[in-house]
Write the structure tokens for this entry.
Amino acid sequence: MNEEVEFILDTTKEAMVNAIAHLEKELRAIRAGKATPAMLANVMVDYYGAQTPLSQVANVTTPDPRTIAIQPWEKNMLQPIEKAVMIANLGFNPMNNGDIIMINVPPLTEERRIGLAKQAKSEAEHAKVGIRNARKDANNDIKKTDISEDLKKDSEAEVQKLTDAYVKTIEDKLSVKEKEIMTV
């Protein structure tokens, strides 16, 4: 195969892998009933005037499936961390005992589970759009190359194979997440 076409295919594959990685990150942040440190991954704490990810100012653990424990590395960070969790609007009520912040994760209602499943579907659809955009860009780049029509057709077929494989991966990840969300 042509070097230029191989470069286009590699670039396309990289874009599709990035779409999958982004989807995985977004799905981890969607709550599925049990507590995980990833639920607080997007919380930013005011650390001496700079917005800093929670994971860089405290140790976040899950001692049991319904509790998240936040152990700040500096005692004076308890109030800013507690405030940051409240501002993040995750529906959690942090409890500060002077040493550690405990968050009890309430069980999900059926309505909330359905809403989270819809959110997961939406994230999967965004990932599919990213895959399709990568396919479109690749096909446009292939059409601009100076190669034979047969090679262009073969290259476009290869791009479509990549697209189908990554879309299937997205659907598999979505079905696993939906099952996880809907399991009581």
